[in-house]
Task: inverse folding
């Protein structure tokens, strides 16, 4: 065993640590979409929205951004996403009728096979006509109960997210 002085040992240790760090960076690949899809695999997710959008629909925009970021990370082909809207969350599609930015986000998500499911109880209780009062909602988008639909989807293996 060779004995070194404190200064020499310190330099030796610093040099060894620097070499290890360079080695780690050399073998650590950059994350790509292919690697992300390998990491995350196929996913079934239900997003739950039952709140108001707030000033300038900021909360709704944030939720839409979260969903798009999720798709970007995992890949649209690896995703099965449902958005369940009930209570105040139905206002997202009401606001989209007059908010072009929100309308664009909803349309973009739908083009990536994101389904927006609307609670029939909320529509009935608030006297909302989905054909006139909501953006891009069809009969097949209406579920009997938003809360029951959340439970059903979770039993089917959908991960629950509340943005």
Result:
């Amino acid at each position: 065993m060779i004995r070194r002085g404190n200064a020499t040992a310190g330099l030796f240790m610093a040099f060894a640590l620097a070499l290890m760090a360079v080695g780690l960076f050399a073998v650590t690949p950059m994350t790509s979409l292919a690697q992300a899809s390998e990491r995350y695999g196929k996913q079934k997710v239900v997003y739950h929205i039952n709140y108001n959008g707030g000033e300038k629909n900021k909360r709704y925009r944030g939720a839409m951004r979260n969903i798009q970021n999720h798709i970007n990370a995992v890949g649209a082909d690896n995703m099965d996403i449902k958005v369940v809207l009930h209570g105040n969350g139905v206002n997202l599609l009401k606001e989209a009728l007059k908010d072009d930015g929100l309308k664009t986000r909803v349309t973009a998500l739908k083009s990536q096979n994101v389904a927006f499911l609307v609670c029939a109880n909320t529509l009935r209780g608030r006297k909302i006509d989905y054909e006139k009062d909501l953006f891009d909602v069809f009969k097949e988008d209406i579920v009997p109960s938003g809360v029951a639909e959340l439970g059903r989807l979770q039993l089917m293996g959908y991960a629950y997210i509340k943005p």
Remarks:
- The first helix runs from residue 6 to 27.
- Helices lie at 6-27, 33-40, 58-74, 91-95, 100-110, 120-125, 130-133, 146-155.
- Confidence is low (pLDDT under 50) at residues 8-30.
